[in-house]
TrEMBL record:
GO cellular component labels: plasma membrane
Membrane topology: Multi-pass membrane protein
TM ranges: 64-81, 93-113, 243-262, 268-290, 302-320, 326-347, 368-388, 394-419
Range of residues in the leader sequence: none
Keywords for this protein: Cell membrane, Membrane, Transmembrane, Transmembrane helix
Subcellular location: Cell membrane
Organism expressing this protein natively: Paractinoplanes abujensis
GO-annotated molecular function: transmembrane transporter activity
Protein known as: MFS family permease
Length: 428
């Protein structure tokens, strides 16, 4: 592995991420950005379904537009991030500012009577493209801010904060939609991006020495090498298979759930917000306390068991038609268990990928990983729209739940459960 430029983080105690000023600034920016995004996660579909009276096919197309950039732009962005290693912060700040401007257009259009589904598709697609830039750069930046020994703790704190933002964001979003409107909720999303840009602009990384060349690889060989590493590494490959399968079927599950809740069960925006908030509570608990299980039971075992628990929980939606007035309680319970299991597993999976990937390939490997895993989301959204239209929302929910549960098999039948310590992942 090529040596990296020492940072202030290299001199911090292994467990002291809060004492790292750059990490605190990254954490604040991530918290603000995620809070706004979680508001939008509930505000965008309800904006389409309630404000614009979108059909199931139109709601499906919106999700395709929201995640298609992960299929189209991820690899080029990964190369861009690795070529301009010392401009990653500027790329992230620019992405935040661009997303704030784009999302702010939606409430303005709604209040002026010019909003429509075609405009919503374009704005969401453009904002998602900038999200690709932000997330690929973010993955490659964190290992420059903290040491390898701090990765699990740092990712745990970021994931726990994201889960807390999910709790507050979707809850606040539901309240704003119920009391005011979805356009007002979207304004909070734009404000979150602005706060994130301001916090990130305060991060100070050491300047590279003139006699130290940047970690730049030629475009074509780097691209091939990044894809090859992702598809062949014994730990990264099963994580990729699980993530892609999960994302594909989770989209079918969530689209069916939203349609079932709004059109069949007639749940209010506040009730729908409560369901997602329950998932956020589970994710927060899992992400915050998950690292404590690792030392006792082993890294790979904890990842597998928690993944199996979280991925199997959605099978409870099969009881939705029989739950009657207990539907809301059932869905909340499902999301708590799902959030807790996946919250722990995600922290371990991201840390494992970062530890296993050489420094000079992190941007490209993350790009290749997201191309496949997040590229499955628009495919799932399209499939969910077809299933919901042809067979109904309940069938879409059941299909999605079965596929999510099956995603665990990728990790179960791999080398991941044998991994005792994360440091072993970087060994050939």
């Amino acid at each position: 592995m090529k040596p990296v430029t020492p940072t202030a983080a290299d001199h911090e105690p292994v467990t002291s991420t809060w004492s790292n000023q750059n990490f605190r600034r990254l954490w604040r920016g991530s918290a603000a950005s995620t809070l706004g995004s979680e508001v939008a996660e509930i505000a965008l579909p309800l904006f389409a379904l309630v404000t614009l009276s979108a059909s199931a096919a139109e709601a499906s197309t919106l999700r395709v537009a929201q995640f298609l950039p992960f299929l189209l732009a991820t690899l080029p962005v990964g190369l861009l991030v690795d070529r301009f290693e010392h401009s990653r912060l500027r790329l992230m700040i620019g992405a935040d500012l661009g997303r704030a401007l784009l999302i702010a257009l939606l409430p303005v259009a709604a209040w002026t009577g010019t909003a429509g589904m075609p405009m919503l598709y374009v704005v969401v697609f453009a904002a998602a493209t900038l999200t690709v830039v932000f997330q690929v750069a973010d993955f490659a930046l964190l290992p420059k801010i903290v040491t390898e020994g701090q990765l699990v703790e740092a990712n745990g704190k970021l994931a726990a904060t994201q889960s807390a933002a999910e709790i507050g964001g979707r809850g606040v979003g539901a309240l704003l939609i119920q009391a005011l409107s979805a356009p007002v909720a979207l304004l909070l999303n734009a404000v979150g991006y602005l706060i994130s840009a301001n916090s990130l602009s305060r991060i100070r990384l050491p300047r590279p020495h003139e006699d130290q060349p940047a970690d730049r690889a030629p475009a074509r060989p780097g691209l091939v090498r990044g894809i090859t590493f992702t598809l062949c590494h014994r730990f990264v490959r099963p994580l990729l298979g699980e993530a892609a399968t999960f994302n594909l079927f989770n989209e079918i599950l969530m689209l069916g759930l939203l349609l079932y809740a709004v059109r069949t069960a007639h749940l209010s925006p506040l009730a729908i917000g409560a369901i997602f908030t329950a998932g956020g509570l589970g994710s927060f608990a899992g992400a915050w306390f998950g690292a404590r299980f690792t030392a006792r039971f082993g890294y790979g075992r904890v990842l597998l068991v928690t993944l199996a628990a979280g991925n199997s929980a959605p099978l409870g939606v099969l009881l939705a038609d029989r739950s009657g007035s207990g539907l809301l309680a059932l869905l909340c319970a499902i999301f708590v268990v799902m959030g807790a299991g996946i919250g722990i597993a995600n922290v371990h999976a991201v840390s494992l990928r970062q530890a296993a990937t050489p420094t000079e390939l992190r941007g490209q490997v993350n790009a290749a990983y997201r191309l496949v895993s997040w590229g499955a989301i628009p495919l799932g959204a399209a499939a969910g729209g077809i299933i919901a239209t042809q067979a109904g929302p309940f069938t879409a929910m059941a299909t999605g739940a079965a596929g999510v549960a099956a995603a665990t098999l990728w990790v179960a039948f791999s080398a991941v459960p044998t991994l005792r310590d994360i440091h072993d992942a970087s060994r050939p």
